[in-house]
Amino acid sequence: MTPTGGGGRYFITSPRGAPANTVRCILCPRSCSIPAGESGRCGVRVNRDGAGAIPFYGRITSMAADPIEKKPLYHYRPGVSILSLGFLGCNLYCPFCQNWRISQDIHADTRHLSPEDAVAAALAAGFTQLAYTYSEPLIHIEYLLDCMKIARERGIANVLVSNGCLQKEAAADILALTDAANIDLKSFSPDTYSRTLGGNLTAVLEFITLAYRMGVHLEVTTLIVPDLNDGEKEIEGYLKFLTGLSPHIPWHLSAYHPGYRWDAPPTDASRLEKIARRAREDLAYVYTGNIPGETNDTPCPHCGSPLVRRRGYSVNTRGLVLKKNQGKNTYYCARCAKPVPVIRF
User: In terms of C-beta density within 10 A (0-12 exposed, 13-18 middle, 19 or more buried), how is residue 310 classed?
Assistant: First the structure.
């Protein structure tokens, strides 16, 4: 295991043309050049005496049982609980962040949890999956890789909830151990990503594309922020990209509410529904979240019968029938008996 405070393959020491004792982190597109004694933008990747260091290895902000729909994942093990691990820091600085108390403050309370203990906790409590979530887990990639390897060896599925803003090599490393992921696609404007969020749209699109091509169960979330990322041109951009991968990728449209440093009025429910209606012309599965009275049933793609009924986090899966198909557990529609795009095991 990577020792607490130790460096890793995602640092370059003494990069060419940089001052002495400088370290460059090559984990995300920011490629922070870090002077001795300082940290990168994320706050958790550090230059210690001229070498890359990860002093927050194994430091978690929370460990909690969640419904898997909270990730949100609607087509992966519906109705099943998941053990979620939270972390400190983020490589973005979204001004409307919902978890800013841990994403933008590395001084929040934490406790140490080794990868072995994380997996042991999941097994002891009867969980069949672990989620890496809440803040941005990928900036703790060394810990995630260690934990994911042990989880996979012991039959625990790995679920990643992330902004997907990562360099290609690191993306391939983490996705090779990921079973399911929900990735934030926060905007379809390169300028918004760079100026307002501190990220890189191209890197996120490449991450999502790679996840799909590597066979990771993929769902995508977009927080719809009025007058920032909800214009018609931008909506068409999202749709063209997602349908270019697959029209069956679930897209979660979430309503923004004022928080952190953004005090614009919340997303109007009627506006969110209008975007969802347009999206459903191209995508088979579009869901809305963060609005009162939301209902997000999953229809059978063959007969239209509800496979899963949802009222908030209350989930009814009686529309699904689980059968063996070539040795694998496969879901079928209870009405038309055809296989459906919902993952069980």
Answer: buried
